[in-house]
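Shape matters. As here.
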Amino acid sequence: MGELNDPITHLGLLDDEEIEIEFAALELSALDHEDIDLDPYIALLGEMEDKLAAIGGDALDGVEQGRALAQVIGAEYGFTGDRATYDAPLNADMIRVIDRRKGLPVSLSILYVGLARRLGWQADALNTPGHVVVSLASGGTPAIIDPFSGGRLLGPDDLLALISHATGPAGFPDELLLSAMTNRMTLTRLLLNQASRAEQSGDGARATALYERMTIVAPGDGKGWWELARLQLANGDRQDARASLAAMLEITKDAKQRGHIRATLDAIA
């Protein structure tokens, strides 16, 4: 971990609720764009916020809020899912998502959640497998919307179909699959999308850098440390791998996991 990661170190020090998720995603993206000026992107988000307030500022419940978000973000600004080149790395790069008005479910959900929260609405990205969606729970009737489909309102059958597609016919929208992700969980999922694609393309150095970012943004999440140690070992960096595993051991409370970590440390000692 080097100086390039310095701009995001503060994210790991904030309480989760203090993280402004759309800004955090831009800060992560800026690490891959040398000397990028984020001011135009921040200004665009402000402009979108103003239009959302004008259209939906008096929305009484999640359904009305969802319609306002879909009208502004989906219809007026044209943000939608990239179905043609879904696996392209730029779909998880917030700067490029804003440039192209296209992205993955998780990156577009971050945009929707961030703008909704600016108006004081209760919005969360949900832990749905394979395809992140957004819950709006302010006021009377709650709603779940799909930013990948331009903010489309989802009913129970839509949710069942979405989860069944990822988990198989036995899948069911239970509490775990529909739980709200914390800000750190959402950002970690964004980074994991990028890291897994880097690995699939054979770019181990890129994947390692992304797992390092995961450990900075979510130092209390063992997955980033484990994946980082795995790649460090594959690259022959035993000392760095031991340091990553030791960091994971400090935050892991599960006895079985701790035993597994200790066994791995002993094996590479």
Q: What stands out?
A: The domain at 3-167 is CATH 3.10.620 (C8orf32 fold). The beta strands are 80-81, 102-103, 123-125, 134-136, 143-146, 152-154. Residues 39-56 form the longest helix (18 residues).
